[in-house]
Amino acid sequence: MKKYITILAVVLISVSSFAQKDKSLTLNKETNLIEAVYYHDNGEISQTGFFTPEGKLEGNWVSYDVKGTKLVSAYYKEGIKVGKWIHWIDGNKKVVSYTNNVAAL
Fold this sequence. Notes:
Blueprint: H1 2-19, E1 22-28, E2 33-39, E3 45-51, E4 57-64, E5 70-77, E6 80-81, E7 83-89, E8 92-99, E9 102-104
Antiparallel strand pairs: 1-2, 2-3, 3-4, 4-5, 5-6, 5-7, 7-8, 8-9
C-alpha cells in the first residue's frame, strides 16, 4: 500500500508541475467556489476540481494522464483529505479511505 501512495504522490506532483502552464479558473457565484481546470502541454486535461475563496481544495478532484486516462478521483473538505479516493494504477482500481488527512490502511 505504501508503494501505491508513493507512486500517487509522485504522479500528483508531476502532474501539478506540468499543469501549471495552462489553466482555467472560474468563480461559481452560486457555490462561491473556484472551478479549476489544468491542462497538459498537449492540451489534454490534467486535473479538474474546486478551491474555496481562501485557496483550499474542496470537493472532488480528478487527475488524468497525458492521454486523458483517469488516474485519481479524490475528495477534499476545506483542504483536508476525506472520503474514498480511487486510484487507477496499471489498469487496477485501488480505493483508499481518508479521515482528516489520514489514510485508513
